Amino acid sequence: MKITALALAALIAGGAVATPVLAGDSAGFDAGYFLTQLRYDGINAIDVDDYADGRLRALVVLDDGSQVVQFYDKDSLQLR
Question: pLDDT tens across 39-60, in order?
Fold first, then answer.
């Protein structure tokens, strides 16, 4: 019984330590927020990543159904 309890405690503790490793690369980056803002502006984005130099990298679905990667200014959301 004691071994089972210790094994369970170790498993729970190990999961708590591993969780931050699985978090996103950009601390404080809210992809959902930027995705919503791009969609509000009429851009059919399906994924957004924090990119370099104040840019966002968005995966956008075009009217014909094809997908392209587009870069947007992080502050103004203008295509760059």
Answer: 999 999 999 999 999 999 999 9
Phi and psi at 24, nearest 5°, equal -65, 160
Q: How far is CA 15 from CA 18, 23, 62, 77, in A?
A: 5, 13, 40, 37
- Of 25, 74, 71, 24, whose CA–CA distance to 45 is shortest? 71
SS3 1: coil
Is the backbone of residue 17 left (phi > 0), alpha (psi -120 to 50) or beta? Answer: alpha
- Structure tokens, 55: 């840019």
Look at 36 and 17; give whichever has higher pLDDT. 36
Whole-structure pTM value = 0.65
Q: Which residues are bridge partners to 48 per DSSP?
A: 58
Closest by Cα among 74, 77, 71 to 59:
71
